[in-house]
Amino acid sequence: MSTTPSCLLQHDLFTIRGPKGPEDASLPEVLDLLGTGVDIDFPALRPHQAHPWHAFLVQLGALVAARSGESTLARSADAWREALLELAGDAGEDAWTLTNDDPASVAFMQVAVPEGEWGRYKLAAETPDDLDMLVTAKNHDVKQHQMAAARPEHWIYALVTLQTFQGFSGRGNYGVGRMNSGFGSRPGFAAAPGLGWAERFQRDVAVWLETRDDLLRIHEYADQGQALLWSLEWDGEAPRLPLTACDPFFIEVCRRVRLRTEGEAIVAYGAPSNSPFLPAKERLGNTGDIWTPVKVDDKSVASALTVSPSGLTYRKLQDVIFGDAWQYQPALRVRTEDGTHPVLVAQVMVRGQGKTEGYHERRLPLPTESTGWLRTPSTRSRLGHFAQSRVERVGDVQRRILKPALCALLQGAPDDLDLRDDRPQRWLDRLDRGVDQIFFQELWSDFALSDQDSTEADKRWEKTLYDLAKTQLDDAIRSAAVPEARAYRAIATAEMRFEGSARKTLKKLFPPTFDAEGAADDRPATNA
User: Fold this and answer.
1) How far apart are CA 463 and CA 447, in angstroms?
2) CA 409, CA 277: separation in Å to the nearest integer?
3) For the whole model, what pTM was predicted?
4) Alpha carbon distance 304, 520 (integer Å)
5) Contact 190, 204 (CB under 8 A)
6) How far is the C-alpha of 281 from the C-alpha of 275, rounded, in Å?
7) Which of 177, 416, 422, 445 is deepest in the core (most CB within 10 A)?
8) How do 294-296 and 265-271 pair as beta strands?
9) Which of 135-149, 210-224, 297-311, 465-479 has the lowest mean pLDDT?
């Protein structure tokens, strides 16, 4: 049993900030505070590590509660310490020790080396940010190799993020099983009563526990199966064990990484593997992770969400939250216990081939009336169709109204527009960003209005889009380079095209008027 000052169970390795201000705590003390509802946070966490660390803590809490048969999380630090030791089985305290210079023994989030010697292990990282999953090829978004004076907690956060959220990153470096393909991502979508660590911890542990029977039945996991996968040895030559040998709440590892102490510093050594730790490729990320949305295609194949480099846009969010094609994942369901002002939280590190495409996070406060809509399947579906129709209307405004007007302006008002011109894209993108800032706020208010007056709700949305699009056209008129000899003609033509297309496209905002003989009159309406 290790007695080094790097044991998560015995030593105060974590800096936390709570009601008493900054203080140091061990892992059992952290779980004690979270389980009893004390609001704390972790100032040493980097933003992209927040969901991996939350997921790790929640899965630990759920494992301890499931094994004990007691759902309460209000346990003393000593009780948590004893429960975590029991989870580690024969690995004992070694499984909770950050550095273990004996390769034949396990260490925290580090499998044992069956050969009993370092062999193929080579120096992989001298700082935690070099070990982390974050890849910044240009070294200018987030600077690399900055944590020269790293504390143990920085290595802990980097290990948890790497071992539970990393994907494929080249030959010999396989990713986690809870991900759709090696270049996918493990997103976190959840409702929450608030943004505090304790309330989210307690809420999501309860969700995991409620899903346990379904996970055992649907995914054929093993009750009392392998829980802490790093407490095993692995030579990397073949998958270590099947998913069906795992507990439903298992915490995985994907890399052969070992931390060693060299002088006063910690460094990381790594070895390649010829296979992933878990043979989960055919699952396509559909492993029962409560935070990962799963989509079912026309062939009834379920696959986990992979977020594109565009990130968590309003288009993607409304599709996942309301879309009929997505299974409504347990963490995303709004519960009565979430209170009257819950928030939807979406977090993801987008991965690409040999790089990361950025960390994305969205927080959507929910008005009181929306909680009932989201709890009722029929109303949620109706809300989804309402949201999708609004997304389609944005596309109409971009394609039919704003782009032709911009083309007329930028091309100098030719007789025939070239709609393949990509110069208008900057203003189309700005329109989309403007919509993104207000989409959900307007959605909630107009959906409530639609029950009384659907025409007025649609009219309000069309007026909003008209104003946003007109702002972009006005900006282009002020700032775009237009041939001087045709400037007045180009501006006049662009404005006429814009107004004419708006009246043809936005029928609720510009309802047709009729002359004395009953014929439609296409002259501009007066309610814009």
Assistant:
1) 16
2) 57
3) 0.91
4) 50
5) yes
6) 11
7) 177
8) unpaired
9) 135-149
